[in-house]
Specification:
By secondary structure, this protein is an alpha/beta fold. Helix 10 (393-401) crosses helix 15 (549-565). The longest helix is centred in the middle third of the chain and has 17 residues, at 186-202. It binds guanosine-5'-triphosphate, sulfopyruvate and manganese (II) ion (MN). Residues 51, 180-181, 187-188, 230, 257, 279, 410 line the site of sulfopyruvate (SPV).
Length: 570
């Protein structure tokens, strides 16, 4: 029952009008017009600051089709429960109709969604994150082939918040949240949860992956896609300024969060980025860690839940030293030991991808880019080495399926708890994860030259608790090793878990790492991995008979290799 309905065309004028309205009603706070033109700060409700995985449901007629890692309700129960929350929810508000394309507008791999929302903030974000408005309606034409998404802020109370997915009818309902992946329905809800279920049926893949191109000194670009869990380094890796630029290695960005991958007519795996913007983590972002985004963030950017300096500029922990005097926290309070941190740990910027100096000339390529390497990774203080290579596709799928990572502020709940997060898709797989593993195995068989599969960990810590690896732009050294492996130039040591670089095979010149640190970074401890293997077994048990047999076999083979290499400790 909205008081007004607005069909969004995505135009500049519409965007300006919405911004003015939001400045008037306090949804937007203007930023310094000299240093941050057309940039705004939004403060979300303090109870609505991250994805809420506990309130996110996959609604399939059979519970087993959602699988043991998803929350489930039957479609009937879900609709009966949540429909009342939508009744009259838009009274006195404007309802926006937001048509959008995921993927390049001329790509055969792109898909259309229509989000209905009562949040102007959501509209402004969707305009940056997708090809929104007229362009989408034009592509849709008379077709009914689009994914409808119904969104309302409701009353923003967590006990009346639900993020519902109906993969069988390709439908999304979201109520009670205005934040990120809960509310920008094109992102996690469509481009990952609904799309992963569609992709399974149609023989393609929708993954929580960045896409980058690594240029070598000859100018050749090799494309890689990497799945790390939320707030574990995708944006930073995708946009890095390479520490080996002097040697001719550069990184180009195609995407920072989601990859849709198809088998091309030439039998290669081709990836497109369904999005057009970056919804990135602000804390920790600075001139050293991500100079490209720092460059991009100075215009046309929406900041959410960052702090505000007295000169009207955005600020967050890890930007530059300690908080400047007179700063206002993300909640609008003055900063003190009681109100710290100044920026919410999951504060974010929404910025057009085109504004990054690192954007690839193939960003909008309708055919996507050919992927030569897939990379899995997590945040592990211990156990996982800097990098290792799987033996083949099946082993690589096993490596992805047993990924684990420490939880971050990107979702509500405890931070720093190690959990299994297969392929970084635990919160995003729209169907039974055992079937998802089977789909991965099947995709390998369809590829003429399947990409090599790697695992990385930038977050291993030393005895002093500090990160052993400098990370960020230095991560290019690990990408270069992968490239050298693909081109059969680099050595590796076979271990129980996979191939680990020999210290000499890594390009480490210009880095002052002791040989002891390098050894520690690359160390595979059979005892620690034996424990890890038990945890994998427990995780696999959840799936019962549905778990594909090849993964059981890979797990047994790992155990056998570990037994050979370990010195038993009592
Ligand atoms: P989502 O947008 O939530 O999917 O996250 P993401 O995977 O894109 O994570 P992002 O690149 O935004 O990084 C999240 C946090 O990890 C930031 O605070 C970064 O500063 C930090 N980080 C990223 N890369 C590295 C790295 O190589 N080393 C270390 N130590 N920290 C990193
Ligand atoms: C993530 O949590 O993985 C994100 C941010 O990319 S959100 O869009 O809020 O899900
Ligand atoms: Mn993400």
């Amino acid at each position: 029952m909205p008081s007004k309905i607005v069909w969004c065309d995505g135009s500049e004028q519409e965007n300006e009008r919405l911004a003015e309205e939001m400045l008037r009603d306090g949804t937007f706070i203007s930023l310094n017009e000299q240093t941050y033109p057309s940039c705004y700060l939004h403060r979300s409700n303090p109870n609505d600051v991250a994805r809420t995985e506990g309130l996110t449901f996959i609604c399939t007629s059979q519970k087993t089709d959602a699988g043991p890692t998803n929350n489930w309700m039957s479609p009937e129960e879900a609709k009966a429960k949540v429909r009342p929350l939508f009744e009259g929810a838009m009274k006195g508000r404007t309802m926006y109709v937001v048509p959008y394309i995921l993927g390049p507008s001329d790509s055969p791999y792109s898909k259309i969604g229509v989000e209905i929302t009562d949040s102007a903030y959501v509209v402004a974000n969707m305009r940056i994150m997708s090809r929104m408005g007229k362009v989408a309606l034009e592509r849709l034409g008379n077709s009914e082939d689009f994914v409808p998404g119904l969104h309302s802020l409701g009353d923003l109370q967590p006990d009346r918040r639900f993020i519902l997915h109906f993969p069988e009818e390709k439908l999304i309902w979201s109520v009670g949240s205005g934040y990120g992946g809960n509310a920008l329905l094109g992102k996690k809800c469509f481009a990952l949860r609904i799309a992963s279920a569609m992709a399974r049926g149609q023989g393609w893949m929708a993954e929580h992956m960045l896409i980058l191109g690594l240029e070598d000194p000859s100018g050749k670009v090799t494309y890689m896609a990497a799945a790390f869990p939320s707030a574990c380094g995708k944006t930073n890796l995708a946009m890095m300024v390479s520490a080996l630029e002097g040697q001719g290695y550069r990184v180009w960005t195609i995407g920072d969060d989601i990859a849709w991958m198809h088998v091309g007519s030439d039998g290669t795996l081709r990836a497109i980025n369904p999005e057009t913007g970056f919804f990135g983590v602000a804390p920790g972002t600075n001139e050293r860690t991500n100079p490209n985004i720092m460059d991009a963030l100075h215009k046309n950017t929406i900041f959410t839940n960052v702090a505000l300096t007295s000169s009207g500029e955005p600020w967050w922990e890890g930007l530059n030293g300690t908080a400047p005097k007179g700063i206002t926290t993300w909640k609008g309070e003055s900063l003190s030991s009681k109100t710290a941190p100044a920026a919410h740990p999951n504060s974010r910027y929404t910025v057009p991808a085109s504004q990054s100096p690192s954007i690839s000339s193939h960003f909008g390529d309708p055919q996507g880019v050919p992927i030569s390497a897939l990379i899995f990774g997590g945040r592990r203080a211990m156990v996982a080495p800097l990098v290792y290579e799987s033996q083949n596709w099946q082993h690589g799928v096993f490596v992805g399926s047993i990924m684990a990572s420490e939880t971050t502020a990107a979702a509500t709940g405890a931070v720093g708890v190690t959990r299994r997060d297969p392929m970084a898709m635990l919160p995003f797989c729209g169907y039974n994860m055992a079937d998802y593993f089977a789909h991965w195995l099947e995709m390998g068989a369809k590829l003429k030259n399947p990409p090599r599969i790697y695992h990385v960990n930038w977050f291993r810590r030393g005895e002093d608790g500090k990160f052993l690896w400098p990370g960020y732009g230095e991560n290019v050294r690990v990408l270069k090793w992968m490239l050298d492996r693909i081109e059969r130039r680099a050595d590796a040591t076979e271990t129980a878990i996979g191939n680990v670089p020999t210290p000499e095979s890594l390009t480490l010149d210009g880095l002052s790492l002791s040989s002891q640190t390098i050894r520690e970074l690359l160390r595979v401890d059979p005892n620690a991995w034996a424990e890890e293997s038990q945890a994998m077994g427990k995780f696999y048990e959840k799936f019962g008979k549905r778990l594909p047999e090849p993964l059981h076999q890979e797990h047994q083979a790992l155990d056998a290799r570990l037994q050979q290499s370990s010195i038993p400790v009592k």
